[in-house]
Amino acid sequence: MTPDAWADVTGVVTAGGRSSRFGSDKALVTWQGRTLLACACAPLEAAAGRLIIAPEGRYHMPGWRVTPDTRPGEGPLAALEAALHAAPDGWVAFTGVDLPCLTRAYWETLLAARVPGMLGVQALDGLRRPQPLAALYHTSLRAHVTALLDAGERRLRFAVPAGQVHHVTGLDPALLRNVNTPADLPGAR
Ligand SMILES: Nc1nc2c(ncn2[C@@H]2O[C@H](COP(=O)(O)OP(=O)(O)OP(=O)(O)O)[C@@H](O)[C@H]2O)c(=O)[nH]1
Ligand SMILES: [Mg+2]
């Protein structure tokens, strides 16, 4: 895939969670020689813009700008709102620190699946469940996401209106390994 595929894309790693199930800040846990934050950032390095949504001063990744939450502690949907407002018009490739096995090829599969007029692209896992925390969102969702949050919604899976999300099947389920507890990451330090 040409670098042009990434020209209107902002890579976003949200990292403002509490890691309460993990027991320590999972963004900074080392696994296979890198922090989970670095694992999440690496496959998005080709993006034209790169943002980490987290409190200022907590994380430093070369080439990545840290942007604070607009609604701190309100979860990934609120983090997406912050990302959509901080990104230039285009697409946001949105993920979290607890998906360390995504690859550049994963993201390029989603980028290639963008459909004119659709506002989101999400993979389906082996059980055909959409994966909203490893997904593409168009910045024209800004007002919709803000309205959801103002109405009390906090579930990321509702970020894109029904019928506006394109689903991608056939991705290797191992790419979507999700880290919530230390048992999810054998060998982590
Ligand atoms: N910026 C931001 N990111 C968040 C927030 N809540 C969760 N996240 C991130 O969203 C991703 C997935 O969240 P969870 O697995 O629930 O992580 P968590 O909230 O840190 O962990 P638990 O406390 O165990 O639920 C992780 O990358 C978190 O850092 C938030 O309020 N703000
Ligand atoms: Mg959480």
Automatic annotation (TrEMBL):
Top EC class of this enzyme: transferase
Entry cofactors: Mg(2+)
Domain MobA-like NTP transferase residue range list: 11-156
List of residues binding GTP: T14, A15, G16, K26, D69, D98
Molecular-function GO terms, alphabetical: GTP binding; metal ion binding; molybdenum cofactor guanylyltransferase activity
Biological processes per GO annotation: Mo-molybdopterin cofactor biosynthetic process
Primary residence: cytoplasm
Family matches, as PANTHER family: MOLYBDENUM COFACTOR GUANYLYLTRANSFERASE
Free-text function comment from the UniProt entry: Transfers a GMP moiety from GTP to Mo-molybdopterin (Mo-MPT) cofactor (Moco or molybdenum cofactor) to form Mo-molybdopterin guanine dinucleotide (Mo-MGD) cofactor.
The protein's name in its UniProt record: Probable molybdenum cofactor guanylyltransferase
